[in-house]
Amino acid sequence: MRRVPPKARAHRSTSQRPLKIVVTGPFAAGKTTLIETISEVAIVATERDVSEHSGEFGKPRTTVAMDFGRLTFGEDCALFLFGTPGQRRFEVMWEILSEGMIGFILLVHATDPRSLEEAAHIHEQFKHYADVPYLVGVTHTDLSDTPPEKLIEATRSHLGLPDEIKVVVCDPRSKEEVKALMLSILYEVHQRIEAKAVAG
């Protein structure tokens, strides 16, 4: 287990309500990087050396249990971010980490066809775990010559996503883009809560 050095530490008020968001996706989609980029505390990451795919992606380590980070909005909202392992051999952790989530973000590596295949499997699994809002982030678009809108279209089509599910380009290294992604999932959660209140 390693601890990534924090960029900043935020004081946590005892009145903050913890809200759980899961960041999932295939191997090398950018999950750990995304959480590291936005977390206000040192993230807890469980990584191990791997040989599979490492030469292709320059990624010699992979998450085997989870990543954990935290992000606060205002004085009464704290997002707990849980990143899942990307490989199926650690699939048991997916269901464990999904417990209590209010939403999830599915990341897909834009330049790897296998990433789409694995993302389709992960997508179906997480929809089975809980009926919660989610969105899809397409990463590594800077490595592709295909226009971003085409990558978004291909991802939506391959995953069979309905129109109401957002698919957006996101650079996990960009704090502004990651923050926008977090605001989007919180908006989707808020919309779901409002819809249930009206219906109920």
Helicity, as a percent range: 25-40%
Total number of distinct structural domains: 1
Unreliably modeled segments:
6-15, 53-57
Overall strand count: 8
For the biggest sheet, the summary is: 8 strands, mixed
- The CATH topology is given as Rossmann fold
Neighbour order of strands in the largest sheet: 1-3-4-5-2-6-7-8
In N-to-C order, the SSE pattern is: EEHEHEEHEHEHEH
N- and C-termini, Cα separation? 45 Å
According to CATH, the homologous superfamily is P-loop containing nucleotide triphosphate hydrolases
- Tally of alpha and pi helices: 6
CATH class: Alpha Beta
Beta-strand proportion: 25-35%
CATH architecture: 3-Layer(aba) Sandwich
Question: What's the SSE blueprint?
Answer:
Elements lengths: L1 E2 L13 E8 L6 H8 L5 E6 L4 H4 L3 E13 L3 E7 L8 H7 L4 E7 L3 H17 L4 E6 L8 H12 L7 E3 L5 H25 L1
Which terms would index this structure?
200 residues; alpha/beta; 6 helices; 8 strands
Please describe what this structure looks like.
- Helices cover 36% and strands 26% of the residues.
- The protein starts with a strand and ends with a helix.
- It is built from six helices and eight strands, in the order E-E-H-E-H-E-E-H-E-H-E-H-E-H.
- The chain is an alpha/beta fold and 200 residues long.
- Strands 1-3-4-5-2-6-7-8 form an eight-stranded mixed β-sheet, sandwiched between helices.
- Helix 5 links the parallel strand 7 and strand 8.
